[in-house]
Specification:
six-stranded antiparallel sheet, single chain, alpha+beta, 6 helices, 13 strands, 236 residues
């Protein structure tokens, strides 16, 4: 497998072509950003930690019957993944109120949500990723109804698997976002699952162990990510 030209450079990851038309190289960088790129820093080892964390989680999800784009790790910061036709919609599950939900609705942070909520957001930094619904997604051509239904089904399956995994490590999976794409006509989980795209709190102290440490200037971002990995059985 030969790594070729960089096709896309996001805020924290890059996508490279390979000599296989059905495979990409996903590279995790040390770049860390928040507030639609308004706050940006380089954090030592972050690319390595997120790459290995993502591979670990995707492997757990595959074992639970959830299709993902992951093939294998290539290096400390790179993974080989299937080429997906990405759907420009983020799926968000909230088990506990935090972040934008509290700001939107005036809900106290930490309020348990029973049952968990499911939301959709359009991936568009210029518009600050606005909230959308299934009807808008279908009418505006963002996604087909059957694909949205499958994305929702898989997002809740991920919740079932990962809530238990993090609970065993003494943590609360507060919320998270997922992205999906099409591979050979089927919906497949893509992008990444790491502490960059979810909220994780210690069950006893409510200490934040995710990207909110960067957003809120709490420090110890990569150290918290490594702690999360250690608690779920991934040694970094």
């Amino acid at each position: 497998m030969e790594k070729r030209a960089e096709l896309y450079r996001g805020k924290a990851k890059s996508v490279f072509a390979t000599d296989d038309e059905q495979r990409f190289v996903l590279e995790f960088r040390n770049d860390t950003s928040a507030f639609d790129g308004q706050k940006v820093e380089q954090l030592d080892r972050k690319g390595e930690v997120n790459n290995k964390f993502n591979h670990f989680i995707m492997t757990k999800l595959e074992e639970a019957g959830i299709p993902t784009q992951m093939d294998r790790l290539l290096s400390d910061t790179e993974a080989l993944v299937k080429k997906l036709e990405m759907i420009p919609v983020e799926c968000v599950i909230r088990n506990v109120a935090a972040g934008s939900l509290c700001r939107r609705l005036g809900i106290e942070e930490g309020t348990e949500l029973t049952p968990p909520t499911f939301e959709l957001f359009l991936k568009n930094d210029a518009l600050h990723d606005p909230m959308v619904n299934e009807s808008l997604c279908e009418s505006l051509g963002f996604a087909k109804a059957e694909h949205l239904a499958r994305m929702k089904e898989l997002t809740f399956k991920v919740n079932d698997v990962l809530k238990g995994l993090f609970d065993q490590g003494g943590m609360i999976l507060v919320d998270y976002k997922l992205e999906f794409g099409l591979y050979e006509g089927e919906i497949v989980l893509g992008d990444e699952f790491s502490p960059d795209g979810c909220r994780l709190w210690d069950k006893e102290t409510r200490k934040k162990l995710d990207k909110d440490r960067f957003r809120q200037g709490l420090g110890g971002v990569v150290e918290a990510y490594i702690e999360v990995a250690d608690r779920i059985g991934l040694k970094l």
